[in-house]
Amino acid sequence: MHKQPSIEYKLIGALSLRDANHMSKKFTVNIEREACIADGACAALCPEVFELNEDDGRAQITKQWRLSDENLGEGAIPEQYVECAKVAAEACPVQVITVREEDA
Ligand code: SF4
User: Residue 87 domain-assigned?
Assistant: First the structure.
């Protein structure tokens, strides 16, 4: 006789699905560096994600989260830094920072 899955089994299945959904989220950050006025607000508010370039003084994504060395303004960040990246984006006086949540 076919047995119904136990309640524990169903619960574990639901939790795994939730984690899988969570894992499939991707957070990207973009700085239009050409338009950055180098005031440093983003780096002051969210230094885990933003820093100022030593040569031109403009903002760039910290090396840890930068997607490539060709585009210093493009990064992918973990969820724990999304809030501070958004605060920095809001504070940017020329509004050149974009934070996006995308499906991977
Ligand atoms: S807050 Fe905006 S203008 Fe200021 S350094 Fe960051 S990206 Fe540039």
Answer: yes
pLDDT digits (tens, 9 = 90+) for 68-93: 999 999 999 999 999 999 999 999 99
C-beta 37 within 6 A of ligand 1:
yes
Residue 40 Cβ contacting ligand 1 at under 6 Å: yes
Can you give 12-47 as a three-state secondary structure string?
A: HHHHHHHHHHHHCEEEEEEECHHHCCCCCHHHHHCC
Question: Which domain CATH number covers 88?
Answer: 3.30.70.20
Question: From CA 73, how far away is CA 97, in angstroms rounded?
Answer: 9
Does residue 21 sit within a domain? no
> Count of domains in the chain?
1
Distance between CA atoms of residues 24 and 15, nearest Å? 14
Structural domain range at position 84: 33-103
Q: Is 30 in the pocket of ligand 1 (CB under 6 A)?
A: no
Global confidence as pTM: 0.79
